[in-house]
Amino acid sequence: MTNPDTAAATVRLADLETPCLILDADRMDRNIARLRRRLVSMGVSLRPHLKTAKSADVARRVMTSAAGPATVSTLKEAAYFAAAGVKDMIYAVGIAPDKLAKVQRLRQDGVDIAVVLDTVEQAEAVAAASRAAGHAIPALIEIDCDGHRSGVLPNDAHRLLTIGRALVQGGELRGVLTHAGASYGARTEQALVDAASQERCAVVQAAQILRDAGLPCPVVSLGSTPTAHFATDLSGVTEVRAGVFVFFDLVMMGIGVCKVDDIALSVLATVIGHQREKGWVLVDAGWMAMSQDRGTSKQPVSQGYGLVCDISGKPYADIILADANQEHGIVTVRPGSGATLPDLKIGDRVRILPNHACATGALHAGYKVVRGTSDVVEASWPRFGGW
Amino acid sequence: MTNPDTAAATVRLADLETPCLILDADRMDRNIARLRRRLVSMGVSLRPHLKTAKSADVARRVMTSAAGPATVSTLKEAAYFAAAGVKDMIYAVGIAPDKLAKVQRLRQDGVDIAVVLDTVEQAEAVAAASRAAGHAIPALIEIDCDGHRSGVLPNDAHRLLTIGRALVQGGELRGVLTHAGASYGARTEQALVDAASQERCAVVQAAQILRDAGLPCPVVSLGSTPTAHFATDLSGVTEVRAGVFVFFDLVMMGIGVCKVDDIALSVLATVIGHQREKGWVLVDAGWMAMSQDRGTSKQPVSQGYGLVCDISGKPYADIILADANQEHGIVTVRPGSGATLPDLKIGDRVRILPNHACATGALHAGYKVVRGTSDVVEASWPRFGGW
């Protein structure tokens, strides 16, 4: 610190252009260690979802090895992480037939990427593409454990077996996969434990149906950040997928999966105005920097567009980003809280915790990495987006 | 079309990777011509807001000259458009003092960029930076015409004059500026006419207060897409700013500013699944492709995350993107409409009109340009994002 060369090179939070995305790597490391410990003790492997971070630097830290396993939500993620050395991926969005050529190119490059499907049409397309290339594309059948999105009902043996039998006509039936997306709506610890149990039962039941019919099912994959942290039994499960746990966010805090000081991501913003008679402080982080995710608005405590902290990351009690335009945010006291607005002057800086780490991250080109309450920016890690 | 070389080079909508952003340039050209005609007839100039498009190709078409004038919402936009030859810009977000150095560098490069402010602290910072550089930075005082965000109340003569007098101690008082953001909540034509009138009265009143006190006020700037299209009197106004009019969107349609076939932007998506018993079609456009802007949810007709059209851009009656996850969208019949879900098969393509063009555009790296019902992609225009 006393070396003038080092001092000249040091970038601090106060030096950054705003708005920008701040990552507290201490919190991230703690979040990763917490889930890893938990899954090791339960004897299942972790296949982190890289859609939250979209960064090779974060991926390297969150994966259990440099080659994976990992989960991706786009084929651009797959290609990017393949170039970074990841060899074992599941593309966990239902496959469109015209994306199979890209999947095959990745596989030819030595990446074991599997696809996901829940219709016989997709299974036939995968089998046909596999036969045409003389190389089996592995696929997992998506199971609908809670009705929130896609997947085959776990007791729909007819549909499961029709898909499985269509797939093995050239393709490879790698296993079954589910995601308890409805767990984001849980409000109690018991509801989280129940969502995890329902998720496990669904995917294990589907695996059994396939195996009883003589079909292979080596992989039994489930996961969501809430259920990964509240499952009490993972017997029959081979791997857990989770994404947002690496950073956590206000929605996860509202569910009870993390505490406020586990949230590793924030947006640094600068005060640009006041409407004093209204109790408003204007900042240069609007929805373009925070996203329009209002996930906490359905929870008992709405955080508006984000929870406001001082520049060191310490939350102001009940101060939220109550409203947002494209590049303007309005900081106010949470209605009904009786809190006092801090004395924020033009040019002062705040950090704002996001409702949803995946959505907020997606709007930024990279992370400025700090550790704990230090204001020294240790690194800049690029992110990517798009398809 | 019969030339094999040309045929080989032709890219069609069916060839594109999904999701991606489609721009119908015929509709865009029509939207631009409509507002330009209107403002010419009213004798005011157009200073389009380039935050909607963030594209040099669109900017060139929407501006009245290659050098501007234009409005921007970030200094990254300012630098990008300056590099593309734009010489006359207003950075229409309250200036943070630590951004003045960047403004000064742009001005040294020959770009007449003005800043916006509404506090005496900002005015003093602009004046001080101007004196230090020996070059006056021009600033407009933001006027609060409808209480929706920032700005000085138009009848707050004390605050207006204090700011104006602080500014001219080295800086340049360029004029006054307002934005009728509350017009987005209008529900009737009369409410739009009234919002436009209120916007004009506020900014003209503030200009008069400054001039009566002997301060300069050459620019009187106002605008929003709704009020720009419904103002009946713009006397005393020198320029109109508007952004979303270039593309329009479902929020603007809900307000009554455009028709569905004026909306120039859509997201091309592929069918990836069904939940037939629920009447759901799954597509590969989730909120990452559409944004989480639910602007129509407060309007009489909610469009969910978007209105679904066939690949030619023709809307299906009452078929909406009712729900969305990161990379999954759920297409359904609008509740209560009694419409019939079209027979969309795995791999079929749809185009989805967005609630908010600015928010949806921000998630994509570029535009695939088509014209009318043609499926030929004429061009790819890059977009940029970030700060």
UniProtKB/TrEMBL annotation, chains A, B:
<dbReference type="Pfam" id="PF01168">
    <property type="entry name" value="Ala_racemase_N"/>
</dbReference>
<protein>
    <submittedName>
        <fullName>Alanine racemase</fullName>
    </submittedName>
</protein>
<dbReference type="InterPro" id="IPR051466">
    <property type="entry name" value="D-amino_acid_metab_enzyme"/>
</dbReference>
<dbReference type="InterPro" id="IPR026956">
    <property type="entry name" value="D-ser_dehydrat-like_dom"/>
</dbReference>
<comment type="similarity">
    <text>Belongs to the DSD1 family.</text>
</comment>
<dbReference type="GO" id="GO:0036088">
    <property type="term" value="P:D-serine catabolic process"/>
</dbReference>
<dbReference type="InterPro" id="IPR029066">
    <property type="entry name" value="PLP-binding_barrel"/>
</dbReference>
<dbReference type="GO" id="GO:0008721">
    <property type="term" value="F:D-serine ammonia-lyase activity"/>
</dbReference>
<keyword id="KW-0456">Lyase</keyword>
<dbReference type="InterPro" id="IPR001608">
    <property type="entry name" value="Ala_racemase_N"/>
</dbReference>
<dbReference type="InterPro" id="IPR042208">
    <property type="entry name" value="D-ser_dehydrat-like_sf"/>
</dbReference>
<dbReference type="Pfam" id="PF14031">
    <property type="entry name" value="D-ser_dehydrat"/>
</dbReference>
